[in-house]
Structure formats: C-alpha cells, structure tokens
Write a structure and sequence with these properties.
The chain is an alpha/beta fold and about 500 residues long. The protein has two domains: about 170 residues, Leucine Aminopeptidase, subunit E, domain 1; about 325 residues, Aminopeptidase. The strands form three sheets. Strands 7, 8, 9, 10, 11, 14, 15, 16 and 18 form a nine-stranded mixed sheet that branches. The protein has a six-stranded mixed sheet with strand order 1-6-5-2-4-3, with helices on one face. Helix 4 packs antiparallel against helix 8. The chain is elongated and about 90 Å long. It starts with a strand and ends with a helix. It binds ligand BES, manganese (II) ion and zinc ion.
C-alpha cells in the first residue's frame, strides 16, 4: 500500500504548481479568495453560464487560462466540486457529502494521472471541526484504493500509481486541521488494510496469513500477540473451530491481539469471523457466486485492521481482538449434518447445516474472550447470513444486541462514519427456534428470521456481558455505490470501530 504524504499549508493555493487543484464550492456560488483575475473570471463564468451550480456531486474539470501579461495560476488542472447546500444538514450527512467530494477528487486524480494534488478548504466549512478536513481526506484515501497486485501493469500507457502527495490549503487553525488529517490517515489506512486482506483470494489468504499479519503488527507497534494453533485449539476444547476445520487440509488458527495500557479500567473485546473460504462444507453452496466466499473473513480483517489504529493512538482502554480463522471445506473428514459438537464453554450443538459455520467458530471465540478478558463490552463482526442481505440489502449493516444503550452508541458511530447500521430485534422467541432435540442447541433456526436466530446462537456464548453482533454480509463487499467505496471489499466496520473506541469514555458509559 502506498502511503500518501499529506501537507497542511497556510499559504495561498495560487502558489500550487502540481497536477490537480481541487476547489470546493456550494450552491451559494462560494469562491475562495484569489488574486488571479483570470481564474476569478473563469470560476464566475461557470456559474453565470449555468454550466455549474455547486450541487452535491457536481464536478467540472478545466484548465487555467494562460496570459503572459499577468501572473496566472500554475496548477496544471483544476476541478471544481459542489457540496450542495450544507447549512441545514446534520453532521453525519455533511460528513458523508464531504467523503463523497474526496472520493470524486480521487477518481479525477486517477483519470488525469495526478499523483500530486491539492485541495482548497472553503470558508463555508469553517464551523466544522477541522473544517471538514477529516472527511475529505478519508474520501480521498479510501477512493484512491485499487487492488491490482496480481495484474501486470499496462506497458503502453503512462501508469498512475496512486496519489502520492496531498496539499491542503487553509488559512485557519492549521494545528486543528493537522490533527483531523492525522485521524483520517489512521482510520483510512486501517480500512485499506482490511480491504487488502479481504481482497486476497482464498488460496493466498489463509489462517496462516492472518497470524502473520497479527504478529507483524504486534511487533511493529508493541501489541501483545498470541496465536493458538490447531493442537492448542483442540486442547482448549473449541469444538466449533475444530469441527469446521475438519474437512480442510489447512490448519486453523485462533489469533489474539491485545492493546493493554499501563493503567486501565475498562476492556473492549472485538471478535471477527475469519473464515478464509466458505464452500458450505458438506451442505455445499451452489457454484454460482461461490468465488465471493473468499470475503467470508471480512469481520476478522476489520477487527485486526482496527488494531492498527488502536496501536498507534494508544487509548486508555484495553482493546482485545480475537479472530478464529479456518476455511470451510468438504474433505473426507468434514463435519456432517447431524454431527454433535461441544463448544469451549461446554454447550453442545447439533450441526444441522455445515454451511452455518460462522456461528460455530465465533461461539468458541466469544466464550474464550469473555472468560479470559472479562470485557465491559463485546462487539463481533461477521459476514454471517445471506438473510441480512434479503432484509437490509447492501446499504446497512444488521445489528443485534443484549444491551440497547450500548448499541445506540455504536449505531451513532456508524452513522458518523458513513457505515449505517440497523438494529433487528432479539427476543426470546427467536432463541427458541434453535432448540435441539438431541443437543443443547442446533446451528440453524430455519429460514424465518435467519439473521436473528444466528445472533441468538452467538448470544449463548457471551453470558451477561454487554454485546453487539454486527452482520456485515451485505456491506463487506458490494456495499452501496459511493465515490470512495472501490470495487471489491469495502473495509466496512473498521472506521466505525475506531470511532467507537476513540470515544470509549462516552460509549462505555451505560
Ligand atoms: N458466509 C455465509 C453467509 C453469507 C452468504 C455471506 C452470502 C455473504 C453472502 C454463511 O456462512 C452462511 O453460509 N450462512 C447460511 C446460514 C444458513 C445455512 C442457516 C446462509 O445465510 O445461507
Ligand atoms: Mn456458510
Ligand atoms: Zn460463512
């Protein structure tokens, strides 16, 4: 991943000499102060002709006029981007518009092969913290992502290898803006790391790779890391992880990453489904679309990637990430429908459908994390059910919880970050659907309320700990079309988790 350099400048943008200058405006025909008369004329003319009105997502690319008799602007090109009218919008809506602006600029940087770009922060954003720099930078960095490591570069054309440098021009609060930029860089880089892991194919991203990623991160940022291998997982009695892994030639791993401050009073436990390929096992999936099941580890990727930012920001709260990882294959030793397994906490489970494997590995990881770390809250992320896509489509992550106050905090984090969440109920009646005649529970509750009965299964493994389950099956890839959401994995959840952790003082206040 290329790391983009970001500079905040208090100088006039007219001095910028790079490839692409972005001017942000609104429906009030806002124009930044400039001394260059020709540029002023050009900008005004766009509004006067009616060719550009500053609406949201409106963008015009043009070239500064050259006049030998007077100073003219030396940026190679200029894009003017509209935000629409922001004055009556809420903070989350404004955030999303600004990320969209960043994404549009990133798309144009690619189109014009501009590796050195500049943004002029407009005065009409000055009421916002950091003048909206955080969201604009997020949009730029997230929108600049491409997963092309397995494609040979085209030899005939000049290639574009991503945005290398961003200069942000703003005459105000350069320290506050710098801080906003730092936050955006940390959270976006984490989200991009999650995309990188998730976009790897199943043969090149195995439990081993997850373990190596965690070890490397721990070493670089002095986190504590523990990897449990197959024999340890078996010895600990994690029948879910072992069961799902039985049909595979690739051994499972249980990955634990810990950020432990010297002094702390609260602990947040994050658990992510790290299923590196889901064939369905013996209850095999249809062939069509099965390739997308390489993304079945997006929850695990999100959780580990979030630790990338936690490790650098070092909040005064303990954060522990646990990722159970295996693939779900149908080798001759594979789990069979009707088999009964025993989870880490002793609960027995009748495996009715081997394709409902996510809950089996998460159950062990949740029970283990809750017992070992006694967290104040648990958040799990998983591409758990197709049913959540039927219910919510690709626009919202599904949420189920045993603690509404906590869930409300996470919902707000999601909203602030442009990763909207929708809560589904989790009444006792749903839990009754997973009663089994032959074991304590069974691993499917039938078609009706499929996402909720999956959550009801997980709930059995968190005791009374305040817990949130996020079903990201609809949003982890094929997420809503947005300028800053690129093809493939979206990295959903990462920025929401980071926002939630950044505000732990408030979010753990229930
Ligand atoms: N990983 C899948 C869920 C999934 C399906 C995610 C489609 C994204 C897109 C999960 O392991 C699964 O197969 N769930 C089953 C559960 C069923 C057998 C109770 C499902 O949703 O069909
Ligand atoms: Mn499955
Ligand atoms: Zn799965």
């Amino acid at each position: 991943m290329n790391e983009t350099k970001i500079v905040v400048s208090g100088k006039s943008f007219e001095q910028y000499r790079g490839s692409l200058l972005a001017i942000i405006t609104n429906e009030d025909k806002y124009l930044p102060f400039c001394t260059d008369k020709l540029l002023k004329k050009q900008l005004t003319k766009m509004f006067d002709t009616g060719d550009f009105s500053g609406k949201k997502n409106e963008l015009i690319l043009f070239y500064p006029a050259v006049d030998k008799r007077q100073d003219s602007i030396s940026a190679k090109r200029i894009v003017q981007v509209g935000t629409g009218n922001l004055s009556t919008e809420s903070q989350p809506v404004i955030n999303e518009i600004l990320r969209g602006v960043g994404g549009l600029i990133a798309q144009n940087a690619e189109k014009t092969k501009s590796e050195d770009i500049a943004i002029v922060l407009p005065d009409f954003l000055k009421a916002l913290k950091g003048c909206g720099a955080e969201q604009i930078v997020e949009g730029l960095l997230l929108g600049d992502y491409r997963f092309i490591k397995y494609k040979k570069p085209a030899t005939d054309k000049k290639t574009f290898s991503g945005i290398k440098k961003i200069t942000i021009y703003c005459k105000k609060d350069s320290r506050v803006i710098r801080r906003s930029v730092n936050r955006a860089q940390l959270s976006s880089q984490a989200a991009l790391k999650a995309r990188d892991m998730a976009n790897e194919p199943g043969n090149l991203w195995t439990p081993q790779h997850f373990a190596a990623f965690a070890r490397k991160l721990a070493k670089k940022h002095s986190l504590k890391c523990k990897i449990y291998d197959k024999s340890q997982i078996a010895r600990m009695g994690m029948g879910g992880i072992i069961g799902v892994n039985q049909g595979s030639a690739t051994p499972p791993k249980l990955i634990v990453l810990e950020h432990t401050p010297k002094k702390f009073s609260k602990t947040i436990l994050l658990v992510g489904k790290g299923l590196t390929f889901d064939s369905g096992g013996i209850s095999i999936k249809p062939a069509s679309g099965m390739q997308d099941m390489k993304y079945d580890m997006c929850g695990g990727a999100a959780v580990l990637a979030s630790m990338h930012s936690v490790a650098q920001e070092k909040p005064d709260v303990r954060v522990v990430a646990v990722v159970p990882s295996t693939d779900n294959m149908s080798g001759s030793k594979a789990l069979k429908p009707g088999d009964i397994i025993t989870h880490y906490n002793g609960i027995t489970s009748e495996v009715v459908n081997t394709d409902a494997e996510g809950r089996l590995i998460l159950a062990d990881a949740l029970a283990f994390g809750v017992k070992k770390y006694k967290p104040d809250c648990v958040i799990d992320l998983a591409t758990l059910t197709g049913a959540v896509i039927i219910g919510l489509g690709h626009h919202r992550t599904g949420m189920m919880t045993n603690n509404d106050a906590l869930a409300e905090q996470l919902k707000q984090s999601g909203e602030y970050c442009g990763e909207p969440i929708w809560q589904l109920p989790l009444d006792e009646e749903y839990t009754n659907q997973i009663d089994s005649d032959v074991a304590d529970i069974k691993n499917t509750g039938g078609k009706a309320g499929g996402s909720i009965t999956a959550a009801a299964y997980l709930q059995k493994f968190v005791d009374k700990t305040p817990w949130i389950h996020l079903d990201i099956a609809g949003t982890a890839w094929d997420f809503t079309k947005k300028s800053y959401i690129t093809k493939g994995a979206s990295g959903v959840g990462v920025r929401t988790l980071i926002h939630f952790i950044r505000n732990w003082n408030k979010t753990l206040n229930f």
